[in-house]
Amino acid sequence: MTDNQQLKFGLHIPVSKIHTALKWVVVINILFLFGTWLHHSRIIMPEKKAMQILLSQFNFAKENVVASWYSSILFFISGITAATCFWADMQRTDNARGRILNFGWLVIAGIFIMLSFDEMGSFHEMIGETAAFKKAGGGSKGAGWYFFYALILAVAIFMITFFVMKFKGNKLAFVLTILGVLLFISNPFQEKFEIHTWRSSVDPSTWRRPVFFLLLEEGSEIFASFCFLYSFATYAIAAAPGTGLLKIKTLQLESGLHKNFILYLTGFAFILGSAMLIIHLNAWNFSRDDNGIPHNWPPAATAFLGFAAGIYLYFKFHQQQQQRKVYLLLAICCLLISIYFGANMYGYRSGSFGKIKYAVLAITVLAGLAAVIKLNGPGIYAKVLITGWVLLMGLSVFSSRFYPSAFGYLAAVSLVLGLLLHYQDKASGIMLLNSELLSIKAGLAEMK
């Protein structure tokens, strides 16, 4: 592949589709808040354990459920959208000062990815149990808590300062981010108020949080995430507008991929996997019902990237109907796997919920076979990685303790790398075919 034939990666998303997606986020937020009220109120079959487990999946106040997965992934998507803003700004900035400032978007993206990890792993809620925090003075008025709140304040100040500099000409984006920051800052103080109320109650063992305060806390967090997502999407659209063939306004971005991009991603995956192991070995996942499980975030987030890759391929190669079905099947399977790990569904050992893991494995096998057999273009390495995805998911299902999430992470990485290699092979083949067609046309023109 010559320099003129460098492999490209691009986005071409109609603005109307982005706005539709944002509306659906609002609808889903409200549905989960309703589910939070429904489960907390216990008005439907309170004596039925299976029904309560099912309803708990929609409760933002519970950990290791679908609702906590959704909240985490919403932060994750906001981080990805912030990285898209960096991409858009770097393509239009032509001075050194502006390009340096643009790197603030990567800091913002990192903050939201950490928030995504914290939402699923409950790290900020467990920080008081860590040895380092206790040594710093982890009492109710100790130095540990002062440092924790000072860190939150520093992050908030950085975000506001950066957004003031970036959103001078975009009032809607600026207002949304300020609202998001305020909602974000209010959340830890609401949690501290909750703890104080619990400790001050007549009988803490029977105390239940009033539903109004529950919905206020959970609603402020989920809509803070939405405000940031809406703001970043608004900015990205304004920074990189485009027009399609039908004069439809679109978000258009395109860049060449480095020839070693897959090697770099593999290295990053290794670092994240090492961090996952360190988290597990340091026992940050304290065994209490109200704590998240930090090592579930890497497989859930990586599987969600697999979902995004499948959707990208579905729209990228829209003219190949047969293969589009396979891409969609892979995307749906990855979404289910992301929920499976993010909601800790592999932890169910009996009953109807204990069979979920076998259903996930069956869908994975089906999607893997369809990809290996029906997809045209993937080379031998892509097929090996997709096959490895299926085998590693099998090991995940038939293992226990830390190993399901470890094998699940390796499986998700294997699939993402396989899809990237498939995209590279397929896109390179199309570019080569186009080059040959141009050569034939040039030869015919000379003959004439």
Structure explained in plain terms:
The chain has about 450 residues and is mainly alpha-helical. α12 (about 295-315) packs antiparallel against α13 (about 320-340). Strands 1-3-2 form a three-stranded antiparallel sheet. The chain has helices at about 15-40, 50-55, 65-90, 95-100, 105-120, 125, 130-135, 145-165, 170-200, 210-240, 260-280, 295-315, 320-340, 355-375, 380-395, 405-445; strands at about 10-15, 240-245, 250-255. It starts with 7 loop residues before the first strand and ends with a helix. β2 (about 240-245) and β3 (about 250-255) form a beta hairpin. The chain is about 70% helix and about 5% strand. It contains 16 helices and three strands. About 35% of the residues are buried. The chain is globular, with a radius of gyration of 24 Å. Mean pLDDT is about 80; it is low at about 430-440.
Strand content: under 5%
Cα gyration radius (Å)? 24 Å
| Chain oligomer state | single chain
Topology pattern, helix = H, strand = E: EHHHHHHHHHHEEHHHHHH
Task: Note the main attributes of this structure.
single chain; 448 residues; mainly alpha; three-stranded antiparallel beta sheet; 16 helices; 72% helix
Write the layout of secondary structure elements.
Elements (H helix, E strand, L loop, with lengths): L7 E7 H27 L7 H8 L9 H27 L3 H7 L1 H18 L1 H4 L4 H5 L7 H24 L4 H30 L10 H29 L1 E3 L5 E8 L4 H21 L15 H20 L4 H22 L13 H19 L5 H18 L5 H45 L1
Antiparallel strand pairs: 1-3, 2-3
Helix pairs in contact: 1-10, 3-5, 3-10, 3-13, 8-9, 9-10, 11-16, 12-13, 12-16, 13-14, 14-15, 15-16
